[in-house]
């Protein structure tokens, strides 16, 4: 596994704001140029407004002008490496994040391709690729 990315995801997890679920998640995203952007889950008393760690990492990167990505690493304190939710997979598909490293706090990891987790994601045919 990518140690640098894993350590960044673990550090981001420390910033999770999860007073309702107490389930802290961290994510770290590496651009094709090797830059790393992080995210943590941020919950809200209006539960549906909660924002996942993976999406926060992606939006953090895109907001900083980066849109080309290599790998996303996600970490949580789970028995098995944590799996991204469907909404996050759809956002990963938008930005063609092909490789996902699912991990847990014990350092166990599983590398998967987005195409394995979301083989038939939604696509709009009128996308302007520039
Ligand atoms: N969560 C994530 O951050 N990423 C996921 O892929 C799934 C779930 C968060 C949302 C919520 O704060 C907590 O985990 C429990 O669902």
UniProtKB/TrEMBL annotation:
Enzyme Commission identifier(s): 3.5.4.5
Give any Gene Ontology cellular component. cytosol
Q: Which residues bind substrate?
A: 41-47
The UniProt entry annotates the active site at: 54
The GO annotation for biological process reads: nucleobase-containing small molecule metabolic process; pyrimidine-containing compound metabolic process
Could you say which enzyme class this protein belongs to? hydrolase
Name the InterPro entries for this protein: APOBEC/CMP_deaminase_Zn-bd, CMP_dCMP_dom, Cyt/Deoxycyt_deaminase, Cyt_deam_tetra, Cytidine_deaminase-like
Q: Which UniProt keywords apply?
A: Hydrolase, Metal-binding, Zinc
Binding positions for Zn(2+) per the UniProt entry = 52, 85, 88
Q: Which PROSITE patterns match?
A: CYT_DCMP_DEAMINASES_1, CYT_DCMP_DEAMINASES_2
Q: What Gene Ontology terms describe what this protein does at the molecular function level?
A: cytidine deaminase activity; identical protein binding; zinc ion binding
Q: Which cofactor does it need?
A: Zn(2+)
Q: Name the coiled-coil region(s).
A: none
Q: Which reaction does it catalyse?
A: 2'-deoxycytidine + H2O + H(+) = 2'-deoxyuridine + NH4(+); cytidine + H2O + H(+) = uridine + NH4(+)
SUPFAM superfamilies on file: Cytidine deaminase-like
User: CMP/dCMP-type deaminase domain: which residues?
Assistant: 1-125
Database matches in PANTHER family: CYTIDINE DEAMINASE
Q: What does this protein do?
A: This enzyme scavenges exogenous and endogenous cytidine and 2'-deoxycytidine for UMP synthesis.
- Indicate the family of this protein: Belongs to the cytidine and deoxycytidylate deaminase family.
Name of the featured protein = Cytidine deaminase
Q: Which organism is it from?
A: Candidatus Avacidaminococcus intestinavium
Q: Which gene encodes it?
A: cdd
């Amino acid at each position: 596994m990518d140690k640098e990315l894993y350590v960044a995801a673990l550090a981001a997890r420390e910033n999770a704001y999860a007073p309702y679920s107490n389930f802290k998640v961290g994510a770290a995203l590496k651009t094709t140029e090797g830059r790393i952007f992080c995210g943590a889950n941020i919950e809200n008393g209006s539960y549906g407004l909660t924002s996942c760690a993976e999406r926060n990492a992606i939006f953090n990167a895109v907001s900083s002008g980066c849109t080309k990505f290599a790998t996303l690493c996600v970490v949580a304190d789970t028995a098995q490496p944590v799996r991204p939710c469907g909404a996050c997979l759809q956002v990963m598909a938008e930005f063609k994040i092909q490789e996902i490293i699912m991990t847990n706090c014990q350092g166990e990891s599983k590398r998967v391709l987005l195409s394995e987790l979301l083989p038939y994601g939604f696509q709009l045919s009128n996308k302007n690729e520039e």
